[in-house]
UniProtKB/TrEMBL annotation:
Gene Ontology terms for molecular function: ubiquitin protein ligase activity; zinc ion binding
Keyword set, alphabetical order: Metal-binding, Transferase, Ubl conjugation pathway, Zinc, Zinc-finger
One Pfam family linked to the record: Sina_ZnF
Lineage: Eukaryota, Viridiplantae, Streptophyta, Embryophyta, Tracheophyta
InterPro entries attached to this UniProt entry: 7-in-absentia-prot_TRAF-dom (IPR018121), E3_ubiquitin-ligase_SINA (IPR052088), Sina-like_RING (IPR049548), TRAF-like (IPR008974), Znf_RING (IPR001841), Znf_RING/FYVE/PHD (IPR013083), Znf_SIAH (IPR013010)
EC class of the enzyme, as a word: transferase
Protein name per the record: RING-type E3 ubiquitin transferase
Native source species: Trapa natans (Water chestnut)
Catalytic activity: S-ubiquitinyl-[E2 ubiquitin-conjugating enzyme]-L-cysteine + [acceptor protein]-L-lysine = [E2 ubiquitin-conjugating enzyme]-L-cysteine + N(6)-ubiquitinyl-[acceptor protein]-L-lysine
Length: 358
């Protein structure tokens, strides 16, 4: 496999003024990282090597917050308020997909249960005793589930909410306490965790470049850029205002036209991301393009943000024009700034004024 040469030179205001050069490209199925100084090239193919789960975010059952096990038959007066005891979770857990079961819940002649989705997956055979399932509904278990109120499964991570069993699943898909997916682009990384854990993971496992400060000046270099159809440059993480931001830059096809795109993602929830704005600028030969917007949360995948075109898009011909020279090498310098919006409490209109980072 021939390695493409891509160079990203990064400088951050407030730090050292000298350029630090490194070459980064994820192309096709593999990831290529070549860092200055050591000159080592690490190529990863197939599954991501760091597939471990952070202990805090493993798939184990959440602890009972009131201690001990609570039987579903205890104090049955109207609706049951119950802690997520292991026995209850096991009772309502599908043995095939391990997800919580919702009506219709099926059972075999021996009383073993499974969810309706997995019933077709096991070809109508009980996964426990291999007997034919038929069309028997476990109405008793459905009634038990209907009477339960359970804490959110992210209770160990701080969610205080309690929901009826059948409302719990919908809440958990958007719970603010659910862990985040790794924001790294260019590989399929299954790691999840809170923000501090993911920052350490990006730095230690993905060798992502970390910067402090909210202004930046990056130079992206690629020889033979017309040969690159889809390429993702190394992610860069910025720390400012006590938060973390991810800067992405890549080449891809927009319809029939090859383009380059730069955009910023916020390492946190969407509501908090709205408190910040950023600008990007690229230019050369007396011309420039600018972009200003709100960073997207890493709750939105890298691909979703890219496909929505929510960022600075540079046509290939314009990018080569900005690069100067013989237009055969990409040399783009992208500058940017992140700022926090502050509400002016002295006005009735609630006008937002930017808080620029010095």
């Amino acid at each position: 496999m021939e390695l493409d040469s891509i160079e990203c030179i990064s400088t951050v205001d407030g730090g050292a003024n000298e350029d630090r050069e490194f070459r980064n490209l994820h192309h096709g199925g593999g990831n290529i990282h070549s860092h200055h100084g050591g000159g080592n090239i690490h190529s990863h193919h197939g599954h991501h090597p760091f597939s471990h789960q952070h202990p805090q975010f493993s798939a184990s059952k959440p602890p009972n917050p009131i201690g001990g096990n609570v039987s579903p038959a205890t104090n049955i007066v109207g609706t049951i308020a119950i802690a997520p005891a292991t026995s209850v979770h096991e009772l309502l857990e599908c043995p095939v997909c391990t997800n919580s079961m919702y009506p219709p819940i099926h059972q075999c002649h021996n009383g073993h249960t499974l969810c309706s989705t997995c019933k077709t997956r096991v070809h109508n055979r009980c996964p426990t005793c291999r007997q034919e399932l038929g069309d028997i509904r476990c109405l008793a278990l459905e009634k038990v589930a209907e009477s339960l109120e359970l804490p959110c499964k992210y209770y160990p991570l701080g969610c205080p909410e309690i929901f009826p069993y059948y409302s719990k699943l919908k809440h958990e898909t958007s719970c603010n306490f659910r862990p985040y997916n790794c924001p790294y682009a260019g590989s399929e990384c299954s790691i999840v965790g809170d923000i501090p854990f993911l920052v350490s993971h990006l730095r230690d496992d993905h060798k992502v470049d970390m910067h402090t400060g909210c202004t930046f000046n990056h130079r992206y270099v690629k020889s033979n850029p017309r040969e690159v159809e889809n390429a993702t440059w190394m992610l860069t993480v910025f720390h400012c205002f006590g938060q973390y931001f991810c800067l992405h830059f890549e080449a891809f096809q927009l319809g029939m036209a090859p383009v380059y795109m730069a955009f910023l993602r916020f390492m946190g929830d969407e509501a908090d991301a709205r408190n910040y704005s950023y600008s990007l600028e690229v230019g050369g030969n007396g011309r420039k393009l600018t972009w200003e917007g709100t960073p997207r949360s890493i709750r939105d995948s890298h691909r979703k943000v890219r496909d929505s075109h929510d960022g600075l898009i540079i046509q290939r011909n314009m990018a080569l024009f900005f690069s100067g020279g013989d237009r055969k090498e990409l040399k783009l310098r992208i500058t940017g700034r992140i700022w926090k919006e502050q509400q002016n409490n002295n006005t009735d209109e609630g006008v937002f004024i930017p808080n620029l980072c010095s």
